[in-house]
Amino acid sequence: MMKPKLSQPIAIAIVSLVAWLGVVPVPETATGNARATEISSAAIAQLSDRERDQLNRGQAIVTGEKGSYVAKVLIPAGQATVWEVLTDYRNFSRFLPNVVSCQVLEATGNQTTIEQIDERQVFGLGVRSRIKTVNIKTPQTRIDFRQIEGDLTRLEGYWTIETVTTSPGDRFVLLTQVVQAQPNDSTPKGIFYSIFQDALADTLGALRQEAIRRS
């Protein structure tokens, strides 16, 4: 069976999205699992049994549709460690695959502007892409982000970092990303939304793995 082919503009738009998200697979047997059903957190209490089970097994969960999503993952690491990973822009190429470079263009007070370059193969096409975002930080707890240049029509949202505890007193971090994104006119929305939703879960998994490694 022949592989489907995408036009160069469509491939560039899709890769630009995945580049910014930083995709990496999440293993089923991730270490440091928490007893998620026993965790005291309003954000987790509202989840379904199936979603709590996914968190319990070290997997990320993603809800939403058509470019508006909420993604969560539970991390057995300290809040400071998760924050360090999430803001370690200059080293994204070390723990996020296909990232060639990520540069801090400007850092003033709580605002940081970054530019990320990515290279990958998409349906046989080698594509290089660039995304530039401005990130506004509330220390240790939240990062608001917005694309200011790039191949997407819209990309904005925020990260939150929340410390939660289990009934035996173990402490974990609930990392959440709330995001809205829309493709440019050359990208089929159905393809875009499918890749975007899958990439969110993979990205949170990559961040989780790096935080565990640094703990």
Taking pLDDT < 50 over at least 5 consecutive residues as the criterion, the unreliable ranges are 1-5, 22-37
Number of strands: 8
Determine the strand fraction and express it as a percent band: 35-45%
Overall helicity: 25-40%
Report on the biggest sheet. 8 strands, antiparallel
Outline type = globular
List the helices and strands and how they pair.
Blueprint: H1 8-21, H2 42-45, H3 49-56, E1 61-65, E2 68-75, H4 79-86, H5 92-95, E3 99-108, E4 111-122, E5 125-138, E6 142-149, E7 154-165, E8 171-182, H6 189-214
Antiparallel strand pairs: 1-2, 2-8, 3-4, 4-5, 5-6, 6-7, 7-8
Helix pairs in contact: 1-6, 4-6
List descriptors.
single chain; 215 residues; alpha+beta; eight-stranded antiparallel beta sheet; 8 strands; disordered N terminus
Give an overview in words.
The chain is an alpha+beta fold. It is 30% helix and 38% strand. The chain is built from six helices and eight strands; from the N terminus they run αααββααββββββα. It has helices at residues 8-21, 42-45, 49-56, 79-86, 92-95, 189-214; strands at residues 61-65, 68-75, 99-108, 111-122, 125-138, 142-149, 154-165, 171-182. An eight-stranded antiparallel beta sheet has the order 1-2-8-7-6-5-4-3. A hairpin with a 5-residue loop joins β7 (154-165) and β8. α1 (8-21) packs parallel to α6 (189-214) and α4 crosses α6 (189-214). It is globular. The N and C termini lie far apart (45 Å). The model is unreliable at 1-5 and 22-37 (pLDDT under 50).
